Amino acid sequence: MTQLEKARKGIILEEMKACAVEENVEPEFIRQGMVDGNIVICRNVNHTAIKPLAIGLGLRTKVNANIGTSKDNNDLIAELEKLKIAIAAGADAVMDLSTGGDLAQIRKAVMEQSTVAIGTVPIYQAAVKVLDGKKAISEMTTDDLFAVIEENGRAGVDFITVHCGVNRLSVAAVETQGRVLGIVSRGGSMTANWMHCNHRENPLYEEYDRLLEIAHRYDMVLSLGDGLRPGAIDDATDQGQLLELIILGQLAARARTAGVQVMIEGPGHVPITEVEANIQLQKKICQGAPFYV
Question: Fewer C-beta neighbours within 10 Å, C or N terminus of the chain?
């Protein structure tokens, strides 16, 4: 059973107790928040060396730091130094967004030296593997993508960003309404281009149950990515962004039913006058899920 499934049975886990001490709340507050879907605890079953991290309603705001190599700069020592600095500065979680070098080796080293929760974006690694094989990203197969997600779970990654809400309907909404900057999310643009080239639905949406099975196996938190987030304030709160959010709300409910914890990413670039409205929309549509801003 996952932590969420145990919480539903009324079980107070050691992870809940540890998070309660950190947050100065009662363990029951954490447990009930998990049951309600407005609190998640990030800790993969294979990553027990770190302290569990609780995120959500009634808890202090968490700060995530991004590190990662690129094709032009893939110095592992530099990434580990970034990790060290981020943790020393008080980061609660770190995402390894590497796209250059041996991504599995980089992730392994980061996880071995991290004392905080680690997140990844599996489609990056899947794309790099395809490119290393002298193929186009559009030639990536569904099995290629899910194999990397499985690998990340087995390696102990605590949360993964997956762009499940980028589907035919939401992409069509962006294209129909038009945007100043189009799709600015790297994972979102990869997914939309793959769909266009293959004349197929997004595998992460079409085979969402397969994703849930992997996340359940390792008790990974799903961070449902904002692949259609606006990259310019002129594009804020448009049809594509809102349709993706509605889809993510539906997928969040399915994840909870499957015993998988979930948080939602967003909203992207919005005018300051629309920040509050965007947060209220997310909370309403996604039933109070933690918001990864």
Answer: N
DSSP-derived letter for residue 68 is -
Q: What is the pLDDT of residue 264?
A: 98
Structure confidence at residue 245 (pLDDT): 98
Tell me how far apart the alpha carbons of residues 127 and 136 are, in angstroms, rounded to a whole number.
8
Count of alpha carbons within 13 Å of 271, Cβ hemisphere only? 8
Per-residue model confidence (pLDDT) at position 31: 98
Tokens of 208: 């969402």
Is residue 68 within 8 Å of 62, Cβ to Cβ? no
Distance CA 291, CA 55 (A): 9
- Between strands 53-56 and 39-42, the pairing is antiparallel
- Bin 243: left if φ > 0, else alpha if -120 < ψ < 50, else beta: alpha
| Under 8 Å between Cβ of 122 and 222 | no
Rounded CA Rg of the chain: 18
